[in-house]
Structures are given as C-alpha cells and as structure tokens.
Design goal:
262 residues, 4-stranded antiparallel sheet, binds adenosine-5'-triphosphate, binds magnesium ion
Length: 262
C-alpha cells in the first residue's frame, strides 16, 4: 500500500537511514535588483526529520517561497549550508541538482500546473520520463500514485473534466510518482474552497501517516493546524518553531461538513 511513499525502511531511500532529511545552517539569500539588494533570507537554521509534517507560515514577503525554492533545489542560497539527506547541495552543479530534485523532491503548487491536453494518468506519469524505468513500470507507478490520492477512477479524464480539488490531487499524484523523500507544497490550497482544502489536507495527512515528509506553506492557521509542526517566518528569519498542540484531523472534520456534490 505504501510502496510509493519513501520511508526510512524504503529500498528507494533506504541508504539514508538517519532521521534528518534536511538541515540548513545560516542560510542567506540576496536578490540583486539593479542598485538594490533584497535580503530575502537572513540566517535561517532548521533541521527537519523523516516523517515530519511542517507548516511554514509568515506574512507576505517574509521569505517562505525563497526558502522552499532552496529546499527544492530550484534555487541556490547566497551563503550557508543545505544538507539534503546528508548531501551538501551547495557543491552540486546544475545537472546534479536537477537529478537530486527529480529523485528526492516532489512539488505541489498553488496553481495545479497540469498539462491541459493530457490525461490525469499522463500528467502523473510525466516525471517518470527522466527515471530509468520501462513503459509498463512507469504506467504502473502512475496508476498507483493516482490510487493513493483516490483518483483511480479518473485516470482518463483531462484536467478540464476534473474539479479543482481533483486537479490538485492529480498534481499530488504527479509529485509522488518518483517516490520522493520530501513533498514540498507552496500554498496548495490557495485556489481551493474550504471543503476542498480540507479534502486535500486529508490526502496530505494520510500520506504523512505512511511516512512521507511534508513541508507546506500556508497563510491560514486552519490549514497549518493539520500539520504537526509550525515554523513562522518574519523578515527572512524564523520567528517561531513549535509543535502544533491542538492538531486538526481532516478525515474527522469532513464528516461534519456539508457535502457540495462531486
Ligand atoms: N526573484 C526575485 N527577485 C528579487 N526579489 C525577490 C525575488 N523573489 C523574491 N524576492 C523578494 O524576496 C522577499 C521574499 O519573497 P518570498 O517570495 O520568499 O516571500 P513569501 O513569504 O513567499 O511571500 P508570499 O506570502 O507573498 O508568497 C520579498 O521581499 C520579495 O520581494
Ligand atoms: Mg510565496
């Protein structure tokens, strides 16, 4: 059942059995804007262990996306260290970074970023094109991924034939298909109504229960409360870092919400 989710026992990532999935030390990020230098991250230190579910919060412009882009190897820090499963990412060139990104990291964004003329199954399968897998294996993984997000019966639908929540679930399936060590989600419920948001959080909670490490940016405390730990950014630094004391459980909450039809 949990074959798609990399856990500490997983043969996929089993070489790294230590608990720390990632660690950043004195992370700084500057953006040069003509004459001006924007100091987006100002010395961030944090360690995240396997199986954690972290909500990143903070005001607009506080550095959340900058931090996520560095964690996702989409961008490099100006200074400081980033260790991803013990690998010092700063020392890697572009090709190596792309390789790490494809193998170890799954991304989910606010806009679902699905290809519109492509079915749910084909969208999900896309990231496997870079993996050395034969066609049957790629297809099987995509089907399994869609099953994990509850969309086994929607494989042949195009994005326009799916609800917003279903489209986001396809995006989650696509993020899982290469069995990543970490799932990074930047405001994944930003475009969804509240019931659909809770449904998406139910999927995240179920995946986290199976051992997947999840880091999610949100502006909403209600959404952050589905995580296990919250980290609040302010002006490029971590202002607060604490475990969530009264956690919400999406599966329970959904039972009390009125159905809107599918
Ligand atoms: N590519 C860029 N070039 C120049 N400045 C940037 C760039 N990306 C971000 N910044 C600046 O860095 C700071 C942090 O931006 P970031 O996008 O990380 O904020 P955020 O916390 O994600 O905000 P939001 O909640 O609005 O998404 C901001 O002041 C922003 O203007
Ligand atoms: Mg942002």
């Amino acid at each position: 059942m949990s074959a798609l989710v990399a856990t500490s026992e997983s043969p996929v990532t089993g070489a790294h059995s230590h608990a720390s999935v990632l660690r950043v030390e004195e992370l700084h990020k500057y953006y040069q804007m003509g004459e001006n230098k924007v100091h987006a991250l100002r010395g961030v230190n944090v360690e995240i262990n396997r199986g954690e579910f972290v909500a990143i919060m903070g005001a607009s412009g506080s550095g959340k996306s900058t931090f996520m882009n560095i964690l996702g190897c989409l961008d490099k820090p100006s200074s400081g260290r980033y260790l991803l499963e013990g690998i010092d990412v700063a020392g890697l060139d572009k090709t190596q970074l792309a390789g790490i990104r494809n193998r170890k990291i799954g991304f989910v964004f606010q806009g679902f970023n699905l290809l519109s003329r492509t079915t749910a199954l084909e969208n999900t399968e896309l990231p496997t094109l870079y993996a050395r897998l034969d066609k049957a294996e790629r297809r099987a993984r995509a089907v399994e991924s869609l099953r994990l997000v509850g969309l086994a019966d929607r494989t042949d639908h195009f994005p326009s034939q799916l609800s917003g929540g279903q489209q986001q679930r396809v995006a989650i399936a696509r993020a899982l298909v290469n069995r990543p060590s970490i799932l990074l989600a930047d405001e994944p419920t930003g475009n969804l109504d509240s019931r659909t948001s809770v449904e998406v959080m139910e999927i995240f909670q179920a995946l986290n229960d199976k051992g997947l490490t999840i880091i999610l940016v949100t502006h909403e405390t209600d959404i952050a409360n589905f995580a296990r730990r919250s980290i609040v950014f302010r002006d490029g630094t971590i202002r607060r870092d604490e475990s969530i004391s009264r956690r919400s459980f999406a599966a329970e909450l959904i039972r009390t919400m009125p159905a809107l039809g599918d």
